[in-house]
Amino acid sequence: MKNIFNIIIILTSLILISSCASNGEKKDTSELYAKSQTRGAIIERSGTTMGGDATQASRDLRIQDAENRLRSGGGLFGKTGGINLLGGNEKNQTTSIGMPINPYLWKASLETIDFMPIASADPFAGMIITDWYSQADVIDERCKLNIYIKGVELKTSNLKVNSFCQKLSSSNNWVSNSIDTQTNTKLENTILNKAKKIKLTQN
Amino acid sequence: MKKELLIASALVGSLGLAGVAEAATATMSGHQRVGVQGTDVDSADASNTSSQLSGFTVSISETTDSGITISTGFDLAEENGGLDASGLTLAFASGAKLDLIEAGNAATTHVATVPSGSGEFLVTAGTVSNAPSAITFADAGDNVGFEFHTAADAFGVEGLKASISFSTNGDAANTTGNHTDAGMYSVGASYVSTAGDSTVTIGAGMYQGSSTATDSLDDTEAFVISASAVTGNLTIGLGYANGTDMGTGSTTNVDGEATAWTVTGASVVTAGAKYVSGDMTLSVGVVDGSGNDGAAEAAVTGSDDSYNATSASVDYAVASGVTATVGYSAIQRGDDGASVTANSGSSWYIGATVSF
User: Fold this and answer.
1) Are residues A190 and A115 in the same domain?
2) Domain tally for chain A?
3) Is residue B20 part of a domain?
4) Which CATH number characterizes residue B159's domain?
5) Contact yes or no for B209/B221 (Cβ under 8 A)
6) Do A71 and A113 share a domain, yes or no?
7) Which one in A48, A92, B35, B51 has a CA-CA gap of 20 to 30 Å to B223?
8) Does A131 share its domain with A192?
């Protein structure tokens, strides 16, 4: 039996590795899997967060918890088991209806700069322009942001952030600093990260 | 790698963005199973007792720039067990998944569940009869391991998923006559398809383990296959497993020994049905297991041990997360063809499970 098993292991490994490279268009089969009765599928759709799978006892407990959640429609707090310890429920807050831009980028942009006053926000043009903002303890410096969302896809090239900062001179005039492209990139990364999180949370 | 904003510029500093690198998302969940269980063992008077089992889990996850979700967690309470960490799981954007540390067993992952009565039944297994009682009877593993799961529609086949797992217990030294699972590797696959009004799930897997007992004539190994069909509110399932199981601790077992026993020719057949009527779920199941036990270093002799169980239950979903359960189970265990009355009898359970 060992030899047969080794051959199966090797063949399966090769197939698994080769399958990682495939990138073809796939038919949506989620409805089919929603009725799968394997342990893995039941655990996945139950929302159970029980883990620790190295022992048989843990595995049995996990499937038991999962089956009970499916029977009773989830947990006390709804279909998805558990309470988010950090609070917040970002679900159902983003819609893409009628928006010609990526809704996740839009929402992430607004959330990222929610502490700044907004001068203008146009979801159809994909443009957010903030007003000047100074931190309370750094009153001699102010910044504003222009954020452009350029398309419907969640990708780096569809987001552009321009920051403008000024410093108060000794003559009481605001003098523009040189453009800091590194900061712009960091801000873009922050927004992109947040957008991905929102997307994954909602999916 | 996650690109975190550090205090690197006037803008970041003045706008207070230094803290945008957020902590991972943490979720807590758990359950409490509370009930009364009655037992009528063949060799003793009937008795009843309470059953209170708690589970409490904290899970933590975060998603990287590339869309890989990294999750981990720990079970603070795991019913009769204590703290149990959950290893690390990487879920890729493609749908593939990799469990690292505390990985599962690929065969078990793909087993199609076979319905059976639910509830906490108290006809204890004892140590005399070592016949297997479930189709996953020997799927051991170790914390040091991995399990890789393909995305849905593996290898271009609609409805197919597959997994491969490996674990090694490198800290367990080989000895003469003392069994510990030294490692296990496993493959599993499942296929789900529709046939008329029914959705059929077929799951199968194989696993092969090794023992630290250098004089053992056997290793843990088995294959399992099961199928489940869902038609409307009715689910029926059938499963079969066959192989060799190994273990320790049967101090009173006349066939085996405390440090290393084996059950050769271990086989289990299970069948069951479940019917959902509104908030009510009725389940019945039967299990028939057998196998010949003995000391691992010697050829196994004697007759098979046996395990026969019938169970039934009614679960009622009282509210979201709350289930009331009434269950009954009858179990017969045998050792070398003779009934083990101390570990045979019937048991009933009335209780509730509350999950959050």
Assistant:
1) yes
2) 2
3) no
4) 2.40.160.10
5) yes
6) no
7) A48
8) yes
Nearest to A143 among B11, B103, B141 (CB): B11
Residue B21 lies in a domain: no
Domain assignment present for residue B310? The answer is yes
Closest residue to A200, CB basis, from B29, B63, B194: B63
Whether B261 maps to a domain, the answer reads yes
Nearest-10 Cα torsion for B11, B17, B21, B24: -170
Range of the domain at B185: 30-355
* Residues with Cβ within 8 Å of residue B228, at least 6 apart in sequence: A37, B112, B113, B114, B200, B201, B235, B236, B237, B238
Closest A-chain CA to B210 = A2
Query: Which residues in chain A touch residue B274, judged by CB atoms under 8 angstroms apart?
Result: none
In a domain, A64, yes or no: yes
E strand spans, chain B: 25-41, 47-63, 69-78, 84-91, 97-100, 145-149, 160-168, 181-195, 198-211, 221-231, 234-247, 261-277, 280-295, 305-319, 322-335, 338-339, 345-355
Q: Are residues A125 and A198 in the same domain?
A: yes
Q: Provide the domain limits for residue A62.
A: 30-82
Residues of chain B in contact with residue A55, where contact means CB-CB under 8 angstroms, are 140-141
B90 DSSP β-pair partners: B70, B98
Q: What is the CATH number of the domain that holds A146?
A: 3.30.530
- Supply the pTM of this predicted model: 0.72
Kindly give the confidence (pLDDT) of every residue in chain B, 356 residues in length, as a single tens digit, with 9 standing for 90 and above: 233 333 333 344 444 443 344 557 778 888 899 999 999 999 989 999 999 988 888 888 887 767 788 888 888 877 777 788 888 999 888 889 999 988 788 999 999 999 999 998 888 888 888 899 999 988 877 788 899 999 999 998 999 999 999 998 888 888 888 888 888 899 999 999 998 889 999 999 999 998 999 998 999 999 999 999 999 999 999 999 999 998 887 655 557 778 888 999 999 999 999 999 988 999 999 999 999 988 888 888 889 999 999 999 999 988 878 899 999 999 999 998 899 999 999 999 999 999 88
What is the tally of structural domains in chain B?
A: 1
- Which residues on chain A are in Cβ contact (under 8 Å) with B11? 143, 163, 165, 180, 183, 187
A90 lies in some domain: no
Indicate whether this complex's ipTM tops 0.90.
no
